[in-house]
């Protein structure tokens, strides 16, 4: 089980108990869906009594659910409601979806719209063939930057200091046997991505899956998001890649005008504002 605790912005006064409560929610992941009081307490390094009080407060407000006849908890259904409200408040998703659907119809493959948050790829929307394996929404999923097509497409245009922060924070873990795990190889891959204009994921995040992706850059050249076309290694034939990249490029050129609506750009502006307010 792994959870990243939120960094405390310099010069800001935060409520410690709220931080602890949010850290409890972040203990739950797609693979660690149910946790006991002891597991949460141990993971966060908090006394059981403190953890229990926080858990009871979250449970009373619908953000945690105590599973009947067990000692385990899972995320409460109010979290799902918040997720829906957030997505509904993001106009870039509604604006981009028709273009994603057009790409999906033309290619017959999965199409994804992403951004980056806290040094990871954040999936905003996915459009799929009518028949697909796995009936779940990708919205809200987070993955490493270095092993995904969208991630590498955005990484290639990150400022050097931000790229350094991402690598220092998350490293380059091996996800599959094809994942790039050295700085030297990654830098060569990012240079190649800039040269040809698109990134590839050659079974680096999931074996058997291949994708092509391009970044959406704002007016300053900062990577606001990325779009990918993804399919099996059998369907994503090499001779199709260039055509798919051109299709993605046309959609990206349309979305550039709305780059300011992507979370990555909004968070960057907030960081810059915070630095100015703190005299950096």
Plain-language structure description:
By secondary structure, the chain is an alpha+beta fold. It is built from 10 helices and 9 strands. The strands form 2 sheets. It has a 6-stranded antiparallel beta sheet with strand order 6-5-4-9-8-7, with helices on both faces. The radius of gyration is 20 Å and the shape is globular.
| Parts with pLDDT < 50 across at least 5 consecutive residues | 1-6
What's the helical proportion of residues?
Answer: 40-55%
CATH arch. level architecture of the largest domain? 2-Layer Sandwich
The percentage of residues in β strands lies in 15-25%
Helix/strand layout:
Layout: H1 16-26, E1 35-36, H2 37-44, H3 48-60, E2 64-66, E3 72-75, H4 77-88, H5 91-107, E4 110-117, E5 120-127, E6 142-144, H6 149-155, H7 160-170, H8 183-196, E7 199-202, E8 209-217, E9 223-232, H9 238-255, H10 263-277
Antiparallel strand pairs: 1-3, 2-3, 4-5, 4-9, 5-6, 7-8, 8-9
Helix pairs in contact: 1-3, 2-3, 5-9
């Amino acid at each position: 089980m792994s959870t990243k605790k939120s960094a405390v912005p310099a010069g800001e006064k935060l409520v410690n108990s709220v931080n602890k409560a949010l850290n409890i929610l972040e203990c739950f992941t797609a693979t660690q869906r149910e946790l006991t009081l002891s597991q949460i307490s141990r993971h966060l390094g908090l006394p059981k009594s403190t953890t229990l009080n926080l858990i009871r407060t979250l449970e009373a407000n619908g953000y945690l659910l105590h599973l009947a006849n067990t000692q385990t908890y899972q995320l409460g259904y109010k979290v799902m409601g918040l997720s829906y409200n957030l997505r509904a408040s993001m106009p870039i998703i509604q604006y981009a979806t028709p273009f994603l659907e057009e790409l999906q119809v033309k290619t017959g493959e999965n199409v994804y719209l992403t951004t980056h948050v806290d040094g990871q790829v954040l999936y905003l929307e996915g459009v799929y063939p009518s028949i697909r394996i796995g009936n779940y929404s990708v919205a809200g999923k987070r993955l490493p930057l270095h092993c995904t097509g969208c991630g590498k497409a955005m990484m290639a245009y990150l400022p050097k200091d931000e790229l350094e922060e991402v690598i220092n924070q998350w490293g380059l873990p091996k996800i599959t046997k094809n994942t790039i795990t050295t700085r030297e190889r990654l830098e060569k891959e990012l240079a190649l991505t800039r040269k040809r204009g698109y990134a590839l994921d050659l079974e680096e995040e999931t074996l058997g899956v291949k994708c092509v992706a391009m970044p959406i850059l704002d007016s300053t050249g900062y990577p606001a998001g990325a779009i990918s076309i993804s399919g099996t290694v059998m369907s994503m034939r090499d001779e199709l890649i260039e055509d798919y990249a051109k299709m993605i490029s046309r959609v990206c050129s349309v979305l550039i005008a709305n780059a300011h609506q992507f979370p990555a750009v909004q968070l960057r502006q907030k960081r810059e504002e915070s630095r100015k307010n703190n005299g950096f």
